[in-house]
């Protein structure tokens, strides 16, 4: 539960229930998270004043907010 930052055990069971009994869905989720982390890391290597970096960071944050991953 610590790995996914889930605070309540009931939330974890709801999450697993939505995925179903298949472990493939969990693997796809982990792969997606890993890809996002890799992309964000590559963006962080660009200079802070780079307009491309600022644009892509903004797009990524907006996308994650719209998906419900980020709260604010």
Write up what this structure looks like.
The protein is mainly α. It is 68% helix and 0% strand. The protein is built from 3 helices and no strands. The chain has helices at 9-19, 24-44, 51-67. It is flat, with a radius of gyration of 15 Å. The mean pLDDT is 76.
Classification by helices and strands: mainly alpha
Write down the secondary-structure element order. HHH
* Mean model confidence by pLDDT: 76
**Percent of residues in helices:** 55-70%
The low-pLDDT segments are none
Q: Which radius of gyration do the C-alpha atoms yield?
A: 15 Å
Strand runs, count: 0
Task: Please give the largest β-sheet.
Answer: none
Shape type: flat
Distance between the termini: 22 Å
- How large is the share of residues in beta strands? under 5%
Total of DSSP H or I helical runs spanning 4+ residues: 3
Layout of helices and strands, plus pairs?
Elements: H1 9-19, H2 24-44, H3 51-67
Descriptive keywords:
72 residues, mainly alpha, 0% strand, flat
Question: How would you sum up this structure in a few lines?
Answer:
The protein is an all-alpha fold. The protein is built from three helices and no strands.
